[in-house]
Amino acid sequence: MDFSLTEEQTMFRDLFRDFAQKEVAKLAKHTDEAEEPPVALLKKAVAQGFLAATVPEDFGGAALDPLSYCLLVEEIAKECMSTAVTLAVHNSLVNATLVKYGSDEQKEKWLPLLAENLGAFAATEPDAGSDTSRLATRARRTGETYTLSGVKVWVSNAALAKVLLVLAQTDGGPTMFIVDPATPGVKIGHREPTTGLRGVAINTVYFDFVEVAEADRLGEEGAGISIAQAANTQLQLALAAAALGLAEGAVALGRAFAIERKQFGVSIATKQALGNYFADCEIEAEALRHLIEYAAWLASEDKDVAQAALKAKMFGAKTARAAANLMLQTHGGYGFSDEYAISRLYRDAKALDFLGGTPQIGRVVIAQQVFEGAGLAIKP
User: Fold this and answer.
1) Residue 132 — very low, low, confident or very high, per pLDDT cuts 50/70/90?
2) ∠ CA 20-350-136 to the nearest 5 degrees?
3) What pLDDT score does 1 carry?
4) Which end of the chain is more exposed for a tag (fewer CB within 10 A), N or C?
């Protein structure tokens, strides 16, 4: 199996890297400090086609193959994790879901709008995260209209979104809906204060008797959980790529600091203890890259990618955390100062434990796979 990049993929990677280094890097510190998305930067991303990365050409998209899309997220994450997550949520949870499950009419209506504006995915509730049986948001049907009421929390991109995908309970079971946030009754609440990812618009969203046409129901009634799970698989692969980018970005910062920092008359990069840090980071990053490549290959072959994406995301979160921690340690006391970028990466890396599902739930899912067929019930 050959995972070397094609000529086209190499061209894409270089394009993404150039954009990240010239446009994203210079705004990363400000984005974190301002605690708001880089709107001007996102407009430049629109011009590059990055907001339609996973959309077919028939609908005006860039139609990136899965590995090329991972390269996009990776290169952006090297410079700014907030921007990478903003794009990943938009492309993986919203665009890819509409492409896979939307009708032709829904694609024609919503995808052109999403090529120029962000989308958000509203599934989590105050009492319903991993436990979807506690879903409280309701959509009551009257004729050809549903009335949507409830509260969603931790909705990434909510404040800037022009399209919301909303999971709600119906008489037929959990169902996904496409909602225009400008619809009367939709209210975007306050932004959640967060330790990291401060450039992601993470908000509570309220639905107060919001009318949604039957034509904007995504899939059949009762199909919402399977749609949400498939969307989360798409996000997990993108998050694995983001984790790789963050780890690489952290190592680059640590390497530059270690070369210039002098202690006892020599560069600290010559110290074996620090060399061990860099060696460990290099090994884990290489392993993560191959997990991503394998999962992306499965996706490109239209094979079941759920297990591979979950494993890549979980290993990616661990790899990013370890790299950020070791590179902060390389900076010594300076790493504890927000004047140094490594502190931002350290804070951002922790978010990978929560995005796309917690490691605790992920391990339950993997354990269920290990004991499948043994007649044992592995539960959270």
Assistant:
1) low
2) 105
3) 65
4) N
